[in-house]
Amino acid sequence: MRNFFRLFVPLIINPYYYIKKIKKRSIKNFFEYENKPYNRISLISLAISKIISKKGFENCNYLEIGCFDNKAFDTIPLPLSQKIGIDPLRGGTHRMTSDEFFSKNEKFFDVIFIDGLHTYDQCSKDCINAMKFLDTNGLIILHDMLPRSKTEETQKFSGDAWKVAVDLSKSENLEFIIANIDQGVGLIKTRANSKYIKQNDIKDKKFNDYKETYYHQLPISNIENALNFIKLD
Ligand SMILES: C[S@@+](CC[C@H](N)C(=O)[O-])C[C@H]1O[C@@H](n2cnc3c(N)ncnc32)[C@H](O)[C@@H]1O
Known about the structure:
This protein is of the alpha/beta class and 233 residues long. It contains eight helices and seven strands. Helices cover 36% and strands 19% of the residues.
């Protein structure tokens, strides 16, 4: 029914158009992102160009977990031998889950973008695996770290990947910040002795705990700091 209206009824007399608008208005965000012309792809692009200028074009390797319509994946200006995209449903280069990929992988990457299944369990696993296969001076980028409302914390949107941000902010021997744009873009720099540390009690926490407590403890950064974080060693 909804599709019939979408395809054949002009927007102005389509009731679903108005229902969607009303629903969207009734969602109350408890904070807003920076209103600046940047998104996750700006940060991925900067990371890629930094690696290319340091190591050379031929030595830059990119991995994306969760590709969907390739909005980010297609912007990566590397040959297919140097960019891998994992998605069990659509997009990328490998039709499989991230767990299946990492169980056989032996390759190291300079930039790893994690944007697959947005549950705490899967996203933390992806992060731990990414840390294992990140080359020296590489960067891990994570999407959906900062849901603005309970609705955005559902699986259809960002899920509870914010719990991974809490773990990362308390992990050892790594640098971690979150750019306050585009659903929250996490940036991680690791060292040889970096250790992802799971917080015992985080798995069962609710959106209200995030809103009242954890959000205020996260290393949230403006876009200028985030760009500098990527640029500087
Ligand atoms: C939000 S979309 C990715 C969007 C894309 N990275 C972008 O920037 O436009 C999430 C994707 O993750 C995929 N996905 C779900 N579970 C996954 C898993 N276990 N491993 C890898 N990808 C997964 C879904 O099929 C979906 O296409």
